Amino acid sequence: MQIKTTVQMENQLAAQHLAGHLRDSAPYPNAVATISRVIITYSYRDAGAVGESIAEFLINR
What we know:
This protein has 2 helices and 3 strands, in the order E-H-E-E-H. It has helices spanning 12-25, 47-59; strands at 2-8, 30-34, 37-43. The chain is 44% helix and 31% strand. The protein starts with a strand and ends with a helix. It is an alpha+beta fold. Helix 1 crosses helix 2 (47-59). A 3-stranded antiparallel beta sheet has the order 1-3-2, covered by helices on one side.
């Protein structure tokens, strides 16, 4: 089972940075930046870690 989450960022650069952060830190996500959105697909088993990575990125900006 896969979960898909979309995160709206303020611009394309921020979306690309979030996608890169997720690829580097979260377990096995497929993060794609499109314009100012990041679409993240991941296993339900990885939901907690992916959520933590998104929060970490947003808090440390």
